[in-house]
Amino acid sequence: MTSTIEPGAGAGSPAATPRGALRRPAELTANVDVAGLVDVESGLLDRAIFTDLRLYRQELRRVFAPSWLFLAHTDQFHKPGDFFTTYMGEDPVIVTLDRNRRIRAYLNSCRHRGARVCRADSGATRNFTCTYHGWAYDLEGKLISVPNKDGYPDSFQTADWGLVEVPHLETYHGLIFGTWNPDPQPLRAYLGDMVWYMDAMLDHDPEGTVVVGGVHKWVLEGNWKLAAEQFATDWYHVNMSHASALMLLSPAGKKPKEEIVHRQGRQYVDPNGHGAGFPVHPRNRFDAKTVHQWTDYDALRERLGDARVDGPLTNGHATVFPNFSYLPVNGSIRVWHPKGPDRMEVWSWAIVDKSMPDEVREAQRLYNLRTFGPSGIFEQDDGENWSEVQAVSHGFVTNSVPLNYQMGLGSEREDGRHPGRTSELYSDAAGRSFYGRWRELMNTPAWHEQERPHE
């Protein structure tokens, strides 16, 4: 279920804001050819893509600015004025419900001196006022108050200086995505076959999903791609990195069962860089006992089909390119916000089926915290791995040694049961596709690099 949210009139857009005689020198936005840094065919990767500041800045221009990026969940907005502040790449944005109950998103930066006009994480308001000089904007992004307005020339028109609006928002089963691209591919087409895998988490309930427990945020030392890639492609690390967690979740004094340690499954490989991996077993179950006991698996088979219930319904991992990931087993959805080449912020929500009773919702929320919350027994292992990779990658020799992404090379195929091309569960296939898409975007001029007519 995809819906388009049309932006309203009155707010500015990146391509239509007054620039006067400003002309940015090309040297400030010089691009690097990255074709030699990602060899998808051989499965090799140059570590410079994790450490180089020039490449990071190019990512913001060519990967984040044109892509569909996850912003928020529709359950966070119930009344006009409800808002949530987040990021698109490193650009701060406000997502809000306007007076006509349309979801809108604006650059969270005053048009006067550039300070944020909303410093709260979330809440409700009638307008957004900059605390620097008092310029104020309504829920439609229009500039409605300018202290000492008489001091400006007659050419100054408030209609020209509204908040810069994100030009396109669309939702998919309650997930709100936005893009700065003025002429984007529709979200549903961008997701492609990935929606089949997403629906295994998002479409249990005709009434959809809701958020429980707010948004958890923490900072990790590591490049954002390390996290996004792992959630797209890497079941391989589970038995080693999470051995202690698997022991903890096993019956006291027993090792995990052999069929748990050596899972069989598939990995979805999407040409747009998305990816999903999941064990396949007819007895796949939700891990939280209360959630498992409440779940009507027969009804889910009727709604979603055997292939999804046996596969991506429960255990598994997935990434929607570039930086939105999710874990069905505990209802975790998250964004890897880039904060320079060496740092990321993790923002994590727990979502549940709307029909879940309160005690089942609470069980899922607590299970999410214990496993993949900021101090979760699995989350801690992952953060340690990413920071370790990042810490050593700045060495001259280390940075010159390529990384191996060859597991499952050439194994991608149509398996006849799952949409699109899939590989084995233990494979780097979706990782290669992720970096192939990254390479493509990094070497493709975005809309903002087209020549503008002189204004």
Description:
- It is a single chain.
- The protein has a nine-stranded antiparallel beta sheet with strand order 14-20-19-18-17-16-15-23-22, sandwiched between helices.
- It has helices spanning 48-51, 53-64, 187-191, 194-202, 224-233, 238-241, 243-249, 258-261, 289-294, 297-304, 306-310, 358-372, 379-392, 396-400, 429-442; strands at 2-5, 38-39, 44-45, 69-73, 82-88, 91-97, 103-107, 122-124, 127-129, 136-138, 143-145, 168-172, 175-179, 209-221, 265-269, 275-279, 317-320, 324-327, 332-338, 343-353, 403-404, 413-414, 421-424.
- It has two domains: 68-180, Rieske [2Fe-2S] iron-sulphur domain (Rieske Iron-sulfur Protein, 3-layer Sandwich); 206-442, Naphthalene 1,2-dioxygenase Alpha Subunit, Chain A, domain 1, CATH 3.90.380.
- The protein has 455 residues and is an alpha+beta fold.
- The protein is built from 15 helices and 23 strands.
CATH architecture label of the largest domain: Alpha-Beta Complex
| Cα Rg | 23 Å
Instruction: Say how many strands there are.
Output: 23
In percent, how much strand structure appears in the residues? 15-25%
DSSP helix fraction: 25-40%
At the first level of CATH, what is the class of the largest domain?
Alpha Beta
Overall structural class, as computed from helix and strand content, comes to alpha+beta
Low-confidence stretches: none
Global geometry? globular
> In what order do the strands lie side by side in the largest sheet?
14-20-19-18-17-16-15-23-22
InterPro entries: ARHD_Rieske_2Fe_2S, RHO_NdoB-like_C, Rieske_2Fe-2S, Rieske_2Fe-2S_sf, Ring_hydroxy_dOase_asu_C_dom, Rng_hydr_dOase-A
Family: Belongs to the bacterial ring-hydroxylating dioxygenase alpha subunit family.
Protein name: Aromatic ring-hydroxylating dioxygenase subunit alpha
GO molecular function: dioxygenase activity
